[in-house]
Amino acid sequence: MPTDALSREDPYTVDTTWWHELPDGRIQCDVCPRACKLREGQRGLCFVRGRVDDRVVLASYGRSSGFCVDPVEKKPLNHFLPGTPVLSFGTAGCNLACRFCQNWDISKSREIDTLASAASPDALARAATKTGCRSVAFTYNDPTIFIEYAMDVADACRASGVRSIAVSAGYINAEPRAEFYAHMDAANIDLKAFSEEFYEKITFAKLGAVQDTLKYLVHETDVWTEVTTLLIPGHNDSEAEIAAECAWFAEHLGPDVPLHFSAFHPDFKMRDIPRTPPQTLRRARRVAREHGLRYVYTGNVHDPEGQTTSCPGCAAPVVERDWYVLNRYELTDRGDCVHCGTTVAGVFDGPAGDWGAKRRPLRLIEQPGTRGAHDRRKAPR
Ligand code: SF4
Q1: Phi and psi torsions of 27, nearest 5°
Q2: What is the model's pTM?
Q3: Spacing, Cα 72 to ligand 1 middle (Å)
Q4: What is the mean pLDDT of residues 190-214?
Q5: How far apart are the C-alpha atoms of 146 and 152, rounded to whole Å?
Q6: Based on C-alpha coordinates, what's the Rg of the chain?
Q7: Distance of CA 34 from the midpoint of ligand 1 (Å)
Q8: Are β-strands 135-138 and 259-263 bridged in parallel, bridged antiparallel, or unpaired?
Q9: CATH number, domain at 217?
Q10: CA-to-CA distance for 179 and 202, rounded, in angstroms?
């Protein structure tokens, strides 16, 4: 593990609570199933949590790798406040080690320069309100690893009427999971494949832990949940594997949870694998619908049919999309089909937004030092 110097004097470093001491003198981080066992000065696999002064700290509280206003459909969430803008941001590091990472410059960063933008929870909530965003999304890397910061941002946003979205691999232990998702309104969880072998060899994680998170979210919380599977040619795109995923999905999550099959592009340590052919995505969508899933989408391709929501009552196409642009919208303000009145599953609150496909980078300039409730750092000594 890396041993770059950590310091509790650093204005962005805060104490954390999910850890315990081991008999051999190491301290184990209990945030995710990775269970990093740390000696003094060591960082965990995620890089942003580590041991200093005999406790586990988070070294990225209040600083970000950048901010951008973009469409909620890009998260992807197709059934959560459609057409509205979302303030997206992330930090650095990740608790998985996916060889195909599509955000590796952020997730695998060991450069503190990546975290150049300071933003307190209150500043983020103000920025979201000022830019007309209905929600903020923790998205460029996994919020599991900066959970204390993400919860404080969510609290500040909730106080301003702005909702919070977690985009995550779902690789988190039960206790922090319950606390974290109590602060979230929506989530898109990556189900990266449907084999333990893929998870172990390609992501260095475990499928079972992700399945547990999905079942927890769908059955034990009010968090609106959608799921994404990135199909990688030759690795997780066989018809048998997709059928197994869809059968499990239908049985354990139900037909109303949206599933997105998205296209891989060569990146990070898997540059030798070609892009996902559109027909692979369409085949996966067909298999999912044959298993009874009502809302199945293709992503990262032009596929109007695969990006259409059909009414589960009368089968009319009620929402048509082209990438992130809504071309047809035939739902009431509460998400009912205008033709037959059947309710489409999701979170609908007023008319659809008209943000379209715009992407607007933001710059927040702020000094460190504004803290939230989960900042458990002692005052600087
Ligand atoms: S959150 Fe980071 S330090 Fe904690 S167990 Fe997971 S990878 Fe290790």
Answers
A1: -120, 135
A2: 0.93
A3: 28
A4: 94
A5: 10
A6: 20
A7: 6
A8: unpaired
A9: 3.20.20.70
A10: 29
